[in-house]
Specification:
- The protein has 236 residues and is mostly beta strands.
- It has two domains: 112 residues, Translation factors (Elongation Factor Tu (Ef-tu), domain 3); 65 residues, Double Stranded RNA Binding Domain.
- It is built from four helices and twelve strands, in the order E-E-E-H-E-H-E-E-E-E-H-E-E-E-E-H.
- The strands form three sheets. The chain has a six-stranded antiparallel beta barrel with strand order 1-2-11-10-7-12. Strands 5-4-3-6 form a four-stranded antiparallel sheet.
- Strand 10 and strand 11 form a beta hairpin.
- It is extended and about 70 Å long.
- The termini are far apart.
Length: 236
């Protein structure tokens, strides 16, 4: 199983057509090529990991410490540094470049990105509350969240109480998203359906953690075509 992921940018959505005429909504993600900056061994830090750098950044935007770090590693500065825990370090070498080809055998991936921020939202929109009665003595507060506290004991609002507040703009992971196709020339990966976040959102793509046996779209269509070709048994 591939333990290292890649960081990309969500370009937007389109659709993919199959020969059978079926259309599938897909999200296009532009993948950045990653460079292995350093290998972290178990003896050094208690776990094995590979630190990978993504994206370009101007030298002037770096702190003095990071300038020293990159010059020591003899590599160009990277915007994002990401650690991936691995079982063995034998397959990796400092300075190696990782691209979209690491997903060539993968059918499903897990995607992590930040959801679209919705700003300040009420309890009905944010937590799907039912609201108060529309009539019969309820004055003005129809979309309110109702009671939040208790009696004199404990006499406070508990932490985590579902109330109005900032909605969205949180890191979310979507699992088992099918890879519809990959464009190796332009470093674009097409994933089935939608993924969290708006356009140009930073997206982490990793091979699926769960061992799933569901069929891919092309396998489903192939199965359907085979069933069509099988002649129906003559009715007695």
């Amino acid at each position: 199983m591939q333990e290292i992921g890649l960081i990309g940018k969500k370009i937007g959505m389109t659709r993919e057509f199959y020969k059978s005429g079926q259309s599938v909504p897909v999200t296009a993600v532009k993948i950045d090529k990653g460079r292995i900056i350093q290998l972290i061994s178990k003896d050094k830090r208690g776990y094995n990991a590979v630190q990978v750098g993504f994206g370009k950044i101007k030298n002037s935007k770096l702190s003095k410490q990071m300038k020293g770090f990159f010059s020591k590693k003899n590599t160009e500065p990277k915007k994002v540094l990401k650690e991936f825990r691995v079982s063995k370090l034998d397959n990796y070498k400092e300075g190696n470049e990782l691209g979209i080809e690491i997903f060539k055998d993968a059918k499903f991936v897990d995607v992590r990105s930040k959801t679209i921020g919705k700003g300040f939202a009420g309890a009905m929109k944010r937590h799907n509350f039912g609201g108060l009665r529309a009539s019969h003595g309820v004055s003005i507060s129809h979309r309110a969240h109702g009671s939040t506290g208790q009696n004199q004991d404990p006499g406070k609002v508990f932490k985590g109480k579902k109330m109005a507040g900032h909605m969205g703009s949180k890191m979310r992971t979507k699992q088992n998203i099918e890879i519809i196709k990959t464009d190796l020339e332009n470093d674009i990966i097409y994933l089935k359906g939608s993924i969290p976040g708006s356009r140009n959102t930073e997206v982490l793509v990793k091979q699926s953690v769960k061992n799933i046996r569901k069929l891919t779209m092309s396998e489903k269509i192939e199965k359907m075509e085979k069933l069509k070709k099988v002649p129906e048994k003559k009715k007695k």
